[in-house]
Amino acid sequence: MQKILIQLDTDSNPSVFDRVVAIDAGADQLFSYGSIAPDHVTELVHGAIFTRGPADLKNTAIFIGGSSAAAGEALLKKVTGTFFGPLRVSVMMDSNGCNTTAAAAVALARRHHSLQGVQATVLGGTGPVGLRAAELLACEGAIVQLVSRSKERAEAACSEIRQRLPDAQLHSVGASADFNSVCAESEVVIAAGAAGICFLPEAALAALPGLRVAIDLNAVPPVGLADIGVSDKAQIRGETTCFGALGVGGLKMKVHRRAVAELFAANDVIMDTMAIYQLAREIADAVS
Amino acid sequence: MQKILIQLDTDSNPSVFDRVVAIDAGADQLFSYGSIAPDHVTELVHGAIFTRGPADLKNTAIFIGGSSAAAGEALLKKVTGTFFGPLRVSVMMDSNGCNTTAAAAVALARRHHSLQGVQATVLGGTGPVGLRAAELLACEGAIVQLVSRSKERAEAACSEIRQRLPDAQLHSVGASADFNSVCAESEVVIAAGAAGICFLPEAALAALPGLRVAIDLNAVPPVGLADIGVSDKAQIRGETTCFGALGVGGLKMKVHRRAVAELFAANDVIMDTMAIYQLAREIADAVS
Amino acid sequence: MQKILIQLDTDSNPSVFDRVVAIDAGADQLFSYGSIAPDHVTELVHGAIFTRGPADLKNTAIFIGGSSAAAGEALLKKVTGTFFGPLRVSVMMDSNGCNTTAAAAVALARRHHSLQGVQATVLGGTGPVGLRAAELLACEGAIVQLVSRSKERAEAACSEIRQRLPDAQLHSVGASADFNSVCAESEVVIAAGAAGICFLPEAALAALPGLRVAIDLNAVPPVGLADIGVSDKAQIRGETTCFGALGVGGLKMKVHRRAVAELFAANDVIMDTMAIYQLAREIADAVS
């Protein structure tokens, strides 16, 4: 029986990126839909769950993508709410790569430095990747600063995380300059800001002697942490292990492919932020 | 040579249901198009008939679907009108499952009770499934009552059927209550009304001693015949053999898959109401 | 690793014709997009080049099609401009079949008559096929008349060709009647006008004693050269070897399929007018 992946994309052109990865992950057939809104979901999901017998439903799965993580989350909620009883299929959400990127970044940080009780900072923490990175760091026991230019938006992001992780040690910081001071006590820093924003200028790392892991997720110059190269992959700079966007990208791609493949292991897999992170940890640890 | 099925769907999102069934029926490649209107057909059909040699054209076929049977019929007419000489491919029309559902229902009725000369009633007979069920019953020699709330619409549906089956013994009935009286003389009753309409309340079957086969095609409660369970599959209740929507669904799915598979047997198969019904009869009879 | 062809079509329904040929040419997966404009290209191309490693990129390729050759050329320019360094995939442009048709026509003309220094005329030379046929004839050393009803448009087409082939021996002719006189000195004539335009009426060939090869690319009657049958394939009529649209079509289809297959030989193949013509020559010569 062929493995069918139904791609629900919130953008008008369903992502080529997600399609190529789906094929390379082992999907035999891709049904790709663009401009998908929650209103379309019921009909599409019914087509997925009413066509094959319960024992065969593990060969059908749903992938949710698009450039907006909020739109993707809304689809995920609607999709899972349409299932009932054994009539369900596995589903993954990774709009704009937010889950696989955040998972890969935190899994790499954890592999190179214990996160338990450690102070960690996420610069640009209110975007889809930054918010998820902060959540995963908190989940690993780190004491997390979530930084945004707007203190208000930073606090809103923290509130969202606390709803899922009530015990998170999480602090919102509003800052638009002097990020060196913000990061002064941190052992781990992840930069997940928008393109074009440089948080730490050249030579900043040398002024942060406590910093053990620094990760910059921006692939387009100017990068967010000027001392880091886009291709840095566990590059030691002073006392700091550094990763650039391409250095994280290898693991991210493995996680993305593996997460899609796992959808077909059963008919009730939910590949959300936490499940994708578990995979990222396993893959990162297996490499070492 | 790969088997290509071109899915022309009149809705904006081409049906996932039809796509999964197509793959399970053996199509190797699906070309799916949404929002298709008759104006688009010429270009699409030319692409189908001008690309492979006549001997290979049986490996290309067209499936017409969508939520509107009328829109689907219009496409079917345009598609078959675009063929010329040996330059044609097989085509199936099953918008909203109208043909496969009606065919499965009538084939099951026939398997459990002779239809020749028998009085049969279709409740909700003006919708796509009801109209086709009435036509197939008449084709088998039954004396058919086609029932609708509007006598006018019931008569229009009968006229449409008589254009294809001039000898049909077919009567239109306008009724919005007291369906027990309407069905009093019938040995076969098929309920094909819209969701939420209950024609025969609980215990009605016991008051219809002549009824031998009762089929309810509504899967969502309240069902159309309250005595019938959604999963009834040749369930004997009193003197009546009963089928619910899921009880018909198994055969419907087999018919749908087999009909798609048959498209690739030659390049001139037309899977319309009658051809799909022939398949349903063969499959229903093979099971017994 | 599966061969993925990304079809970027400028029309709303991605061409069925191009999809069938792509599958028959060996593509394993087709990602088909309609209504594509240059603005969409960056995102789509990034998805193609950032998903597989450099060594595997030859298994991903792009096909540009649609009914407008100008729109297709604009996409081709944007697509190739988005590549950088080794991050590129092969790409073919054949909007409305313009490149494969012109290439097949000129390759057949060349196979039956030397083109070097020979006078050749393209009737209807400003359309996508005619312009490319004139360019390829000039490239083979013919002295080409490019004929259009509008002298101005004919000259514009010549200018466009001269930008790519500065040494082309190319003359623009404005003519809306008496095409016999226009063709009087020509040994090769290709008719590539719009449907319904007849350039040379019946018995015109007999009045052109120097004509050695005549090709009419119009498949729908009235054809452009009335003496030629749509199915003529190297049909000798008097002193002239004749080809009709279907007679050229066989080679055109072979060239189209082979060009798609060649995309997967490396990750930097550009199947444009000249590259497609080289293939057409090879295939035409291999047959003889």
CATH topology of the largest domain in chain A: Rossmann fold
Q: Which two chains share the most extensive interface?
A: A-B, 19 and 13 residues
Radius of gyration of chain A: 19 Å
Q: What is the level-2 CATH architecture name of the largest domain in chain A?
A: 3-Layer(aba) Sandwich
Major pleated sheet of chain A: 7 strands, mixed
Distance between the termini of chain A: 36 Å
What would you call the shape of chain A?
elongated
Average pLDDT of chain A, rounded to a whole number, is 96
* Helix fraction bin of chain A: 25-40%
How many helices of chain A in DSSP terms? 9
Please, what is the CATH homologous superfamily of the largest domain in chain A?
Answer: NAD(P)-binding Rossmann-like Domain
- Please indicate the count of domains of chain A: 2
Strand content of chain A: 15-25%
Describe the structure.
3 copies of one chain form a homotrimer. Chain A has 288 residues and is of the alpha/beta class. Chain A folds into 2 domains: 4-97 and 251-286, 3-Layer(aba) Sandwich (Rossmann fold); 101-248, 3-Layer(aba) Sandwich (Rossmann fold). In chain A, 40% of the residues lie in helices and 20% in strands. Chain A is built from 9 helices and 12 strands. The first copy, chain A, has helices spanning 16-24, 38-49, 69-82, 98-112, 128-139, 151-164, 179-182, 245-263, 273-287; strands at 4-9, 29-33, 60-65, 90-93, 119-123, 143-148, 169-174, 188-191, 213-216, 233-237, 240-243, 270-271. In chain A, the strands form 2 sheets. In chain A, strands 7-6-5-8-9-11-10 form a 7-stranded mixed beta sheet. In chain A, helix 2 crosses helix 3. The first copy, chain A, is elongated. The relative contact order of chain A is 0.15. Chains in contact: A-B, A-C, B-C. At the A-B interface, strand 2 and helix 2 of A face helix 1 of B.
